[in-house]
Design a protein that fits this description.
Elements lengths: L1 E5 L4 H12 L4 E5 L7 H11 L11 H6 L8 H7 L8 E4 L4 E3 L3 H11 L1
Parallel strand pairs: 1-2
Antiparallel strand pairs: 1-3, 3-4
């Protein structure tokens, strides 16, 4: 099963949901405003993407309001404290396979494997 983490207002998340729906792939949507990824899920996605820095959206509103550009921080701790810092959509296709942001190439691989 493919999980899509994001928010209902995020255009990238809407695009990912539409992408998988058009291909008949069953997905589970998790709105990070309502339920953030668990520490284990974050750890798994970070491992798949090469570290927690790949999950951070440093260009987003949450990062600028927290002042991350001007401080030393532990990315994992910041992501656990504020899921709004996640780069959306986060697409997870089982253990060890994930994509952050609009990555249609990875989505195509996930969709092909799911069918």
């Amino acid at each position: 099963m493919i999980q899509v983490f994001g928010t209902k207002k995020c255009r990238g998340t809407q695009k990912a949901l539409r992408f998988f729906k058009e291909r008949g792939v069953q997905i589970q949507f998790r709105d990070i405003d309502e339920k953030a990824p668990s520490p284990g899920e974050l750890d798994d996605m970070a491992a798949a993407l090469g570290g927690f820095a790949a999950l951070l959206d440093l260009q987003g509103r949450a990062a600028s309001s927290r002042g991350l550009a001007h401080m030393d921080y532990d990315p994992r701790e910041e992501l656990l404290a504020d899921p709004g810092l996640l780069r959306t959509p986060l697409v997870r296709a089982g253990r060890g396979r994930a994509a952050a942001g609009p990555d249609e190439k990875a989505w195509k691989e996930f969709a092909k494997a799911a069918q």
